[in-house]
Amino acid sequence: MKQNILFASDLDNTLLFSYKYKKETDQCVEYLNGQEQGFFTQKSIALLGKINQSISFVPVTSRSIEQYKRIQFPKECTPNYAVTTNGAILLVNGEIDSTWYQTSIQSVKPWYPELHKIHDMLSSIPEALRYRIIDEMYLFAACECAEDAQRTASHFIGKTKLEVAVSGRKVYFFPPSINKGHAIERLKTRFKPTYTIAAGDTIIDVPMLLQSDLAIIPDANLLSNSMVPHLVAPNHIPFSDFILTQVLHKLS
């Protein structure tokens, strides 16, 4: 019988990492255009399999539905639930939860004019190499580098009521209700957990981390102004291995 604990985790650079960081023993779990894209460590697979049998493991990602479904979780690690699109969409056994989806759509509809306005404005910003509205819920722009992303964001910060968030070379424009913290609140209503653990690595994950009873992060600066109990991963082991070791320790 599963314990009533919720483990909500970001994916990219948290549990999952790109081919740029792979080692020989790591397992590819994602392909893009036939090329190896995303990896788990062997240790993470073993640990996540145990965790997935014991508690509610829910990935919470800014990936689109399509991007999330590219991930081929090892069978023992496959979550029954996943939250995609930065909290806007809940998947249950791979299918969209209609109630969750309709609630999100209704909250985002008033922001469609602003999303499309900014989408059109991005066409005149050379640093924004590609951009699109993700699953009808938020706007995303990709740049060549982090500096270009900051320059792109600077055109809009303070000039829109959408949340403008920069993560690496990417810029996100979120309606107020579309964030991972709100997603955790909705998951708590559904699962009614007695304890919530969250893991993430960027500013986009902070709202989720703030809703947890324990946050696991790679850098103390991510929660420098917060009183949320948190663990900071050491540099000498993979972040994913540290996260899952700590989660499993909490279950023992």
Read across the widest sheet, the strand sequence of neighbours is 5-1-13-14-15
Q: Any idea of the CATH class of the largest domain?
A: Alpha Beta
Shape annotation? globular
The number of distinct β-strands equals 15
CATH superfamily of the largest domain: HAD superfamily/HAD-like
Describe the model:
This protein is of the alpha/beta class. It has 2 domains: 5-88 and 178-251, HAD superfamily/HAD-like (Rossmann fold), CATH 3.40.50.1000; 106-174. The protein has 8 helices and 15 strands. Helix 1 packs parallel to helix 8. The radius of gyration is 18 Å and the shape is globular.
Put the structure in a nutshell.
The chain has helices spanning 42-54, 65-69, 98-108, 112-122, 146-154, 180-191, 206-210, 239-251; strands at 5-9, 17-18, 27-32, 35-40, 56-59, 81-84, 89-92, 95-96, 130-134, 138-142, 163-167, 170-174, 195-199, 214-217, 230-232. The chain is of the alpha/beta class and 252 residues long. The strands form 4 sheets. Strands 5-1-13-14-15 form a 5-stranded parallel β-sheet, with helices on both faces.
Reconstruct the topology from this structure.
Blueprint (H helix, E strand, L loop, with lengths): L4 E5 L7 E2 L8 E6 L2 E6 L1 H13 L1 E4 L5 H5 L11 E4 L4 E4 L2 E2 L1 H11 L3 H11 L7 E5 L3 E5 L3 H9 L8 E5 L2 E5 L5 H12 L3 E5 L6 H5 L3 E4 L12 E3 L6 H13 L1
Parallel strand pairs: 1-5, 1-13, 13-14, 14-15
Antiparallel strand pairs: 2-4, 3-4, 6-7, 7-8, 9-10, 10-12, 11-12
Helix pairs in contact: 1-8
Q: What labels describe this entry?
A:
single chain; 252 residues; alpha/beta; Rossmann fold; 2 domains; five-stranded parallel sheet; globular
